[in-house]
Amino acid sequence: MDEPGSGGNVVRYYCTAGNGMEAFLINEVKTKLAAEDVCQIPGKVLFSSSAKINRVSNLKGAERLFLLLKQDSPVSLSCNPWDPHRNRHSYSVDMFKKMFYFCVKQEVSRVIGAGLSRLLGWKADLKNPQLEINVHLSDDYCLLGIPLTRLPLANRSYIKITGLRSTTAWAMASLAHIQPGFRVVDPMCGVGTILIEAAQEHKDACFLGVDIDEAQLQKASENIAFAELENRINLLKASSLVLPVPSATVDAVICDLPFGRKFGSRIDMAANLPLILTEMERVLRPGGILVLLLSPQLSCLLKKLLIEYDTGPTSNPETKPQTGMQNCPSSSRSPSKKQTFQIHSGVKSSPSQETKLQHSLPFTVSSLKHQATFRVSLGAIDGLIHKYVKTDCCVFRDVMF
């Protein structure tokens, strides 16, 4: 890898980022680009770096990348433009506000275009411009910049079929702190976005995607082939309720649990969350990391479940102690060794297995220790990324196949 300063002179940039992604992007520019003078404003991260432009344009947590021309405070108005509208109804004020912002946008574009024409003799071309200048205005700041890429950085060239937003998938993978030799599982992989983002960043790890939906696995297979990652990402059709993976053998589990309208009729995620969580916990080794993307409702449910696990079962006091319990073995190995998955080939979870597992509630004390929660925008809705670490002292039920 090139040295951070190999690009020559220090250049000032800014990136746009989805709500909640700013912290991930700040860490990325500091780590990958040795960025200096890093600062954050809502939805944007400003930084200086001497790294080559091809490295800067390879940022994974950013939406768009700009060359910063000018940063300033917003222009103060000499009078209050709202005075003539104080006594109007709320809908009229709202309409005026929308029209006001629209007019400001048009006026700013006109003024900048006229100024460049006077200074440089350039001619404005709104349909096919050779150079685009962006002005970001808010009540607190004004940014003037030039976009450095035609397409957003979030549009990955190596992903054919889009699923979870690539920036969010990358952020989840970054929380897993994947090391060489790690074995990483996504038990609800969908089209494979999380696995692909993780594999692009970590060349010496092994990845497994599991999904019960044949159509999703087919799309994931196409994506993996398109990204040329077939040799490092394996796919398996199985239920997340009964994973065909030995206990305490996985270094990281990363999963976007389906929620929202798209998945509302397909699976009762709230009812199955305790079962899914138990399976994820079972396959994780002590010290392993669990990263989950949840809806606000599922996030609250997960917190409640883990509190109940830690304080003991309360829903059914007559439940007898579970049999078939075993202590998690303490696993330690050299991270430099290449790891592979031991999968029970051809084994699929039957309905009777899943029903048996459901009837075995309540669960034992959880070994998952909460590390952090991040609220991120997914577009129309927000999601919450939870990070947990499996502690060394844990007790769980092994699942037999």
UniProtKB/TrEMBL annotation:
GO terms for cellular component: tRNA methyltransferase complex. Residues 1-148 form the THUMP domain. One of its GO terms (molecular function) is RNA binding. CDD domains: AdoMet_MTases, THUMP_AdoMetMT. Keywords: Methyltransferase, RNA-binding, Transferase. Pfam families: THUMP (PF02926), UPF0020 (PF01170). GO terms for biological process: tRNA methylation. Residues 313-355 are annotated as: Disordered. The keyword Cytoplasm does not apply. It comes from the Eukaryota. Gene3D superfamilies: 3.30.2130.30, Vaccinia Virus protein VP39. Belongs to the methyltransferase superfamily. This is THUMP domain-containing protein. It comes from Astatotilapia calliptera (Eastern happy).
